[in-house]
Amino acid sequence: MQTVDSQTTRSLRLGMVGGGPGSHIGATHRQAARMDGHYDLVAGVFASDAERSRVFAATLAIAPDRRYGTWQEMAEQEAGRADGIEVVAIMTPNDSHYAIARAFLERGVHVICDKPLTNDLAQATELQRLAQERGLVFGVTFNYSGYPMVRQARAMVRSGELGAVRLVQVELASGWASTLLEAEGHKQATWRTTPAIAGKSSVVGDLGTHAHHLARYITGLEVSELSAELSTLVPGRQTDDNGHIMLRFDNGARGMMWVSMVAAGNLHGLRIRVYGERGSLEWVQERPDELVVRPVDGPQQILARGAGYLAPAAQRVNRLWPGHPEGFMDAFANIYSDIAAAIVARRDDSAVDPLALTFPTVDDGVLGVRFVDAAVESNQQGGRWVDVRTP
Ligand SMILES: NC(=O)c1ccc[n+]([C@@H]2O[C@H](COP(=O)([O-])OP(=O)(O)OC[C@H]3O[C@@H](n4cnc5c(N)ncnc54)[C@H](O)[C@@H]3O)[C@@H](O)[C@H]2O)c1
């Protein structure tokens, strides 16, 4: 079980930007980073307000001289220290990812960034170029790829168990913003429905990039073209809140994506189905320990997380015995641990477990931003098919 707790060398010195008090995803990043002991949180700027940031940093037992007021100050000062951070994790609202990631890459710091990578494709490809040029690891937390049964689905599809993939149906249809939450001062809804912060499509940037990565991660196929209808279904909202997107994949497979924040009554609503020549499989995030397999020539099976018959890729990231549920936090931690394995291998010039190298990177982040652009372009042109492949 879990190569992630087999690390023998010292932890990576980690800094964080964002994720302050009351934030949605900050605590998840911190717990995921801590879970396997690969990272030591030694510096941070956690809030846009310098004083709030410093007070919060103190509650995390960060040394007084490393409780920063701004990310610019942190980038500058950490670069000047012999024990400066080796990796930075960025979990601020979308519009700031680029400037922050860039500042740390330029100072030779590995990056873990939340999605969408940026709101602008030129900025995303610039980050990709910088990471490549500097030889730095750049992970993007498309965290659903950290679930053991998603890794199992990937192993099965990639080994040809379903035959050639023909259809991919993916949905991330949540109901969290079915009312005009932003009018009530709801913090996360307010920035997610402000185009200058959330990006040109809120729903595709926020949810579509996850669904897009998950479909690509499991199938190994790339989306080549799409046709999108993006809608605003809650009156008074400034951004889209629902998207229906038809997909064409590079092997000729067809697919559909439904992303929504107004699927009232749904909780998170993440589900993927992949249909090949010989059968299909289905994974639903709210039942993360099951993978349903439906062969054309036999009865339906439900594979169980932790079982001995699973692929090595799924066994490797298993944390608990079968029948003992695990979930979002564990999957997020698997992404953090895979990224640590890649950074440690570069630091120590050592070999890395190839199974650690499927974590989402800046390349996946760029494709996500391109997917958002194409969806917006298609929607603006009445659902015209738009080529998603980057020139
Ligand atoms: N991977 C996932 O499952 C997942 C889930 C939720 C959010 N996200 C992503 O994480 C990011 C943050 O989302 P959230 O919902 O946690 O937002 P949030 O509004 O809850 O929290 C943002 C935090 O960043 C801080 N912040 C803002 N500007 C800052 C700055 N310049 N310097 C330092 N801190 C700053 C804020 O004070 C706040 O603490 C977004 O990009 C979002 O898309 C990812």
Briefly, what is this?
By secondary structure, this protein is of the alpha/beta class.
Architecture overview:
- This protein has 391 residues and is of the alpha/beta class.
- It folds into 2 domains: 3-143 and 352-360, NAD(P)-binding Rossmann-like Domain (Rossmann fold), CATH 3.40.50.720; 146-321 and 366-387, Dihydrodipicolinate Reductase, domain 2, CATH 3.30.360.
- Helix content is 35%, strand content 21%.
- It is built from 12 helices and 14 strands.
- The strands form 2 sheets. The protein has a 9-stranded mixed beta sheet with strand order 13-12-11-10-6-9-8-7-14. The protein has a 5-stranded parallel beta sheet with strand order 2-1-3-4-5, with helices on both faces.
- Helix 1 (26-35) links the parallel strand 1 (12-18) and strand 2.
- The longest helix is centred in the last third of the chain and has 21 residues, at 328-348.
- It is globular, with a radius of gyration of 20 Å.
- The model has no long low-confidence stretch (mean pLDDT 96).
- The structure holds nicotinamide-adenine-dinucleotide (NAD).
- Nicotinamide-adenine-dinucleotide (NAD) is lined by residues 17-20, 23-26, 45-48, 71, 91-94, 96, 114-115, 141, 143, 187-188, 191, 206.
